[in-house]
Amino acid sequence: MRIPLTWLREYAQVPAGATAEDVMTELVKVGFEEEDVHRPLDQISGPIVVGQVLSLEKEPQSNGKTINWCTVRVVPEGQPQTLDIDGIDPSGVQGIVCGAHNFVVGDKVVVTLPGAVLPGDFRITPRKTYGHVSAGMIASVRELGIGDDHDGILVLSTLGLDPELGTDALELLGLRDEAAEINVTPDRGYAFSIRGVAREYAHATGTSFTDPAALVTVAPATGPGYPVRLEDGAPIYGLPGCDRFVARTVRGINPAAPTPTWMSSRLRLAGIRSISLPVDISNYVMLELGQPLHFYDADKLSGDIVVRRAAAGETLETLDGKVRKLDVEDLLITDGSGPIGVAGVMGGASTEVTDGTVSVLIEAAHFEEVSIARSRRRHKLPSEASKRFERGVDWNVADKAAQRAVDLLVELAGGTADTTGTDVGDAPAPVTVFLPAGFASARIGIDFTPGQITGSLVDLGATVETVDAGYSVMAPSWRNDLLTPEDLTEEVARLVGYDLIPSTLPTAPPGRGYSRAQQQRRRTVQALADSGLTEILAYPFVSKAANDTFGVADAGAARPAVKLANPLSEEFGYLRTSMLPGLIDTAKRNLSRGFNDLALFESGLVFLPSDSLGTASIPPLGVKPSDDVLDALYDGIPYQPLTLGAIFTGKDSPAAPGHTPRHWDWADAIDAARLVADVVGVELVVEQGSHQAFHPGRAAALSLRTGEIVGYAGELHPKLLAEHNLPARTVAMEINAEKVFEAAADVIVAKPISTFPVATQDVALVVPVEIPAQAVLETLREGAGELLEDVALFDEYQGTGIPEGSKSLAFGLRFRAADRTLTSDEASAARADAVALAAERFGATQR
């Protein structure tokens, strides 16, 4: 909401020297957020005055253009020029070249003199052009930044103005005013008006406030006005679509009457373009009182106005020129010809007020919020009116707003108001809320006095009655958000002052902290970051193809996925079942911006639905669901395990003198997965694996000691890399961190460091090429017994000296006893037992 300060000062005690920033500082105290400052003088300055054209000579040019060589008086005749600026003639008459042709000798215009600056940092200086020295410029509204019309000069008589020569044009056109813009939350729709903001400014400053609605005197009707019927007999959303409709008629208006500058300048600062006097008046009253109005050309109406729901198949051409197919839930304004407007959203073209309109029917109605909001969304028709109606409008201000519009049309457009009027509908029952005496203090932490509570609520406009054990509060008609004791408590805290609420941190109970899963997640994420990877956060929305590729290991196998009911894009209409699509998209985006060396990881949830998803019915409001109902709800939620993924491409470090960087490879992806397991004390088993997203033969299956596969790592499939424009040999890993965490021991116990020396022995075994090295390693570990401290593969060889179809695997074995120094015979015996078991299982022979 933009608030012109001159307008606000009419109803609130804003100091004369206060700026927009000062006003926003006060409004922040009562819960509004600062948005922006709109100050025309930030873009326009210098001597810009009213001048009168004394002479005009048309001079055709060789380029086919005709220019006007003008003399313009910029001070009253007989008075000297007081401005001492280079280029300003002391006589008060300036010579100016102008290319526009919509003015004549004698017209009063806006003259920007040398030294002036116009929007866009356009500086006015004397310059020679078309054979003359042009010392200034006769301005259009576009050049002044107050409109879009650039077809001609701003002639002041078209605005109904006849100012004295030399008058400050910035003051005349309202360009010295400024506006503060605040953010209005959806529950405070009353603040979408000068009336509402002025009241809040008074709350913030402790000053008085003048209600603009109270200044309007509604003339009593001498009889019924235009016939109106409310026929929303079966409310869809619990309340009638329209519960009040005020109609007033003004005849004989002057269609050519200009909008006064004080009104157009305020509308412009408020963010609304001036269109015509009737339209401007409707917008002005809406901004002032918060009640949207709609004006109909009374001569185009036929038959009674009826407010009803749309019938199937009905259409309406709205003011934007589009023919819209209406929904049976749309609330309409109709006459004998059919629909003439979507209630509270936009009027129809058939009854539009035009330049030829001489009789106006004013509508000031009160509509139900949900109906307006759904029609606005359904037809994609946001408007200033719908923005207010769907947040709630004061039921009691409709007649005031209609009378205010009548008064302005009579005063400014020369119209005559009918003495009759229409006001149909039933007032809603007032909302009364009981506020227990200690309720506000207990929830806010301040010992509010009875005076603070009643004073704050009365300031809001509520009627407060002290009763046993509390207060009976009747909310004001413009506050449809005050429905519960909590709402009233918030208002008391807001008006007494948020700054008085003590800042007290709760004391954490002893023995509590992060849960086991939280600790494990933090350790793993920190370990990956410490190892040089960069954490990212990707969208969890992916395509079906991405889920099918990355979510299952076998090509062609279906991956059940959660389909979004209202996706941001149809291309990304599913929740992810793998972390890799988001990592790949992030890597692509970084590569396209020149970041070629990447090591990225993400921790997050994937969504793995079972056969049943969702529930057949939603529990009713206001009733605590039973355990069975809650169990059914939880059963319908997809399994969402915490998953860790990483992607590597490019080199592991920058090049430097004496250092050649290494390309990331499959071993780095496996090491990242191992690191995740290591920090929680779990050992991963790494074996040759197969996954459709990974390179055949360069993929590892990651499993627990139980044999359950918990992830994959290795080089991504070349076809997939080509499809996504990723570099060759890009590697990745993904691991189900939740299963790894579950496999971890509750307490990780460090092994004691032995003081006895280690005995190391190596062994090279020849086994069939299809035997995984991991299987041989595990067999050696099992066969060597408890004296074996560690075993590691350090070489694999195929070639000369090794039978075809076989390979040589070299292992380093480390033996140590906890209570003595091992002899070489003991170590050799353990080694022999390990080799014997490998020979038994795989036919291994020593090389």
Structure report:
This protein has 847 residues and is an alpha+beta fold. It folds into 6 domains: 71 residues, Phenylalanyl-tRNA Synthetase, Chain B, domain 1, CATH 3.30.56; 131 residues, OB fold (Dihydrolipoamide Acetyltransferase, E2P); 198 residues, Phenylalanyl-trna Synthetase, Chain B, domain 3 (Phenylalanyl-tRNA Synthetase, Chain B, domain 3), CATH 3.50.40; 69 residues, Phenylalanyl-tRNA Synthetase, Chain B, domain 1, CATH 3.30.56; 194 residues, Bira Bifunctional Protein, Domain 2 (BirA Bifunctional Protein, domain 2); 88 residues, Alpha-Beta Plaits. Helix content is 26%, strand content 25%. The chain contains 22 helices and 40 strands. The strands form 11 sheets. Strands 28-31-32-36-35-34-33 form a 7-stranded mixed beta sheet, with helices on both faces. The mean pLDDT is 92.
Question: What's the layout of helices and strands?
Answer:
Elements: E1 2-4, H1 5-9, H2 20-28, E2 33-38, E3 48-60, E4 66-73, E5 93-98, E6 108-112, E7 117-118, E8 122-123, E9 127-129, E10 132-134, E11 137-138, H3 141-144, H4 169-172, E12 179-183, H5 194-205, E13 228-230, E14 242-251, H6 261-269, H7 277-289, E15 294-297, E16 305-309, E17 315-317, E18 323-325, E19 331-335, E20 338-342, E21 346-347, E22 360-367, H8 369-379, H9 384-389, H10 398-413, E23 416-417, E24 422-425, E25 432-436, H11 439-444, H12 450-460, E26 463-467, E27 470-474, H13 485-496, H14 516-530, E28 534-535, E29 541-542, H15 544-550, E30 574-575, H16 580-592, E31 598-605, H17 627-635, E32 642-649, H18 666-678, E33 685-688, E34 694-703, E35 709-716, H19 718-723, E36 731-736, H20 737-743, E37 759-768, H21 773-784, E38 788-797, E39 806-815, H22 824-842, E40 845-846
